[in-house]
Amino acid sequence: MKRYFPDLVRSIDEKTQAQRVAGIPFAPADATETDGAAAEAVARPKKALPTTVPNDTEAIAALTEGERQIAARNPRGAEAAFQRVLSKYPDQPRAWFGLGVVAYMNHDSGRAKQVFGRLTSGEHAATGDPRVLAWSHVYLARLYDYEGNISGAKAEYESALAVEGGPAEARQAAQKELAASANDKPTPQP
Questions:
Q1: How far is CA 127 from the centre of its chain?
Q2: What does pTM read for this prediction?
């Protein structure tokens, strides 16, 4: 390097390089942004955490394993699998839904309502995954129904029906429960 560097520097033609740089088009500066705001944007880039699992075979395998464990009625195994996914992807809706189902299986209605509520409304709502969104509404409605909150359950079932692109099974479950609640006659109060 010691031998070639001086020759490399001497071979640079300053006039040619100045003309080349003058011909490079630069984007105009945004007049609405202050220098402080631009410096802040450069200094602190906001990196959005992925909510879907992009080509991550390990995370997909953990999600699949968690769903298998739910089908096998093993809430501990399912929870461990979903926690592995959430450690890498903290806003992954399928993993959160799995944790909600685990809480539902464990009869932990407080935790289940918290998780399904998180998936149905607010900034963490599963709007990008209609399957998770529709089933979260159905499970939340069931929890309200068990508590005796008929109006809350009805609203959640109707929300499940309103999810565009939701699975037919979730739609059928919501319709069935709405029809059953419409057929229930209120008991007369003394």
A1: 8
A2: 0.67
